[in-house]
Design goal:
469 residues; D-Maltodextrin-Binding Protein, domain 2; three-stranded antiparallel beta sheet
Length: 469
């Protein structure tokens, strides 16, 4: 890192030492109030009840009462804060982080490097998580140098695919004999399918994101399929961006062709993922790139119908078929005593690997709430746990609430031939934002030179970010 970054990290770390409170939330520095009660706070939890969160709020309050009764002298506080880079450092420096909060896997290394991550390895082993987590497949999300700094938020694991509005495909005469959309198997087939939808229905064939870092986040899946490598590290530890390669340029040309050759994209080209989600829900587009758990959000926000959506695995490109794997990540702050109570909370609320009557009851309640919201239930593409009893308990809790016909999701859940990849290693969010600018240029400017555009983006990303690592 540059000297200034090191100095800043040292100053912030020193501030925490002097104040003596790393996310304890309560003024004595050990997480205890004046009466000696130990407090833990759970980030991303509703603090005020309203029509939309009523069931979630009530369940939290019910669990809070149960937990506090089982752990006298411990108080569980709701904390509505969700991770935001704009105020994270201020909250961390002030000791105001929730004891347990969730973030993106791309932020884990930054939080560790800045000294705000709690090493939870001892607790992971004490509670047996290390023997039940699928570390071989997902360890990169929450481990570093053999130590545990985070946990995956239960139910948040995802891999990306293509979502389809069934009614739009019906109108375009693109359903098979079983009423399932004819899933494009390659990105070239997807372009042609999108063109057909536009020609036959007047609707956009594909809606893509191009801003907010979300365009780049989705676009890397296509770039992988074209053979793009994003960066490399030399023997001295220096990182060099490499994505303006022939393969990267070909991927960007593909996006340009979707707009100018196939006329297949939406009219609102400066778009985040909300635009595509809204269009899919309203029947204004045939396809979007997304992950299954985002469909539940679109159901709540835009009225997407669970029986009018299907999903497939990612199409293949010249280099293969790739899909990004990710999740929401729990991270921790505070004392060892507080972190241990967080593990107790996870177990009691059915988010840990152990199976008890309480776990089963919590899982049933969770699926019951999701069912009332009209969520898509019955689709599982990933299992965080290797504990067969835990997997069975989840399946049994899910069974009464299954809301979709599996035939519309089998291609996605089976994922045959898909290579699953984690996000690029360094400056990930900055990379996504940089790729947004490339996407915007080629969909807004018919004469854009893809090689020149991507080379400039790469040079700027190198200078502004990787060179400062």
């Amino acid at each position: 890192m540059k000297k200034t970054v090191k100095v800043l990290s040292l100053i912030l770390a020193l501030a925490l030492v002097l104040t003596g409170c790393v996310g304890t939330k309560v003024g004595q520095g050990d997480g205890r109030d004046a009466e000696g009660n130990l407090h833990i706070s759970i980030g991303g939890t509703p603090t005020v009840k309203n029509d939309k969160n009523a069931k979630t709020y009530d369940l939290f309050q019910e669990n809070k009462a149960k937990f506090e009764a089982a752990h006298p002298g411990v108080i569980v506080d709701a904390d509505g804060w969700s991770f935001d880079l704009k105020n994270y450092m201020t909250k961390a420096e002030g000791g105001d982080l929730p004891t347990m909060y969730y973030t993106s896997p791309t932020e884990v290394n930054n939080i560790v490097d800045n000294g705000y991550a709690t090493d939870i390895t001892a607790m992971v082993k004490k509670y047996g998580y290390d023997k039940m987590l699928n570390n071989e497949k997902y360890g990169n999300l929450y481990m570093r140098d053999g130590k545990y700094y985070a946990l995956v938020k239960d139910g948040s694991l995802y891999d990306m695919g293509i979502a389809y509005n069934i009614d739009v495909f019906r109108k375009a005469d693109l359903l098979d004999e079983n009423g399932v959309p004819k899933f494009p198997q390659t990105w070239q087939e997807l372009a042609e399918t999108a063109q057909t939808i536009k020609e036959k229905t007047g609707k956009a064939g594909l809606a893509i994101a191009t801003k907010g870092g979300q365009g780049g986040w989705h676009f890397i899946n296509i770039m992988w399929a074209f053979g793009t490598e994003f960066m490399e590290q030399d023997k001295d530890g220096k990182w060099t961006a490499t994505f303006a390669s022939d393969e990267g340029v070909a991927a960007l040309q593909y996006i340009k062709d979707l707009k100018w050759k196939y006329n297949a994209l939406q009219d609102e080209l400066l778009a985040d993922i909300q635009v595509g989600g809204r269009m899919l829900s309203m029947g204004d587009v045939g396809m979007i790139i997304t992950q299954e758990n985002m469909l539940d959000y679109y159901i709540e926000q835009y009225g997407l119908k669970a029986d009018n959506v299907a999903m497939s695995k990612m199409p293949a490109g010249p280099a293969g078929r790739f899909s990004q794997v990710g999740a929401n990540i729990w991270m921790f702050s505070g004392t060892d005593e507080q972190v241990e109570m967080c593990f107790e909370w996870l177990d009691m609320t059915g988010q840990g690997p152990t199976v008890s009557d309480e776990t089963k009851e919590q899982l049933k309640k969770s699926y019951g709430i999701r069912s009332e919201k009209g969520h898509i239930i019955g689709i599982r593409t990933a299992n965080l746990w290797m504990n067969e009893d835990r997997i069975k308990a989840e399946q049994e809790a899910m069974a009464p609430y299954i809301s979709v016909d599996p035939k519309f999701f089998e291609d996605y859940t089976e994922g045959k031939g898909v290579a699953y990849k984690f996000e690029p290693e360094r400056c990930t969010q900055q990379l996504y934002a940089a790729l947004d600018t490339a996407l915007q240029e080629v969909v807004l400017n018919k004469d854009a030179d893809c090689k020149a555009v991507l080379t400039k983006v790469q040079d700027d990303f190198q200078k502004n970010f990787l060179d400062k690592e």
